[in-house]
Amino acid sequence: MNIAFIAHDRKKEEMVNFVIAYESVFEDHKLYSTGTTGTRIMEQTQLSIHRFASGPLGGDQQIGALVADNEMDLIIFLRDPLMAQPHEPDINALLRLCDVQGIPLATNVATAEILVKALDRGDFAWRELVHKYKPGVDS
Known about the structure:
Blueprint: E1 2-7, H1 12-21, H2 23-26, E2 30-33, H3 35-44, E3 49-51, H4 59-68, E4 74-78, H5 88-101, E5 105-106, H6 109-121, H7 126-132
Parallel strand pairs: 1-2, 1-4, 2-3, 4-5
Helix pairs in contact: 1-3, 4-5
C-alpha cells in the first residue's frame, strides 16, 4: 500500500511519535511524505520514505498528483487547525481530491490510529481491487 505522511510544523513531533509507535505496521508499505516531515521520521525510525518538496513548496500538490491518479491508498495529514497556513489552497485541493477518489485521510491522531489498526488487520484489501480495476483504464 502507498501511504503518505504530512504534518504541519507544530504537529511534526506528534507525527514522528505516531510513526514510531506503528513502525512495524508501516515497514511493509511504500511510504511517501512531504520534505521535512519525512526527514524527521527517517531520523527517528528505520523506515525508508520517498520525500517530496515541503508542503508550502509544492509537496502537498505532489502527493495530490498521486491521489488524482488513484496511486495513494492512505494519507495521514496531521493538520494544525489553530494556525493559518500560507498554502491553504493546496491543502484544500488535497482534501478535495481525497474525497473525490475515496482515499482514506486522517487529519488527527485519533483517526490515524483507527486507520492504521484497520491497515494492520488487513481491512484495506479493497484498495487492491481499485488498483486492479482502475476506472477509465482499458484492461
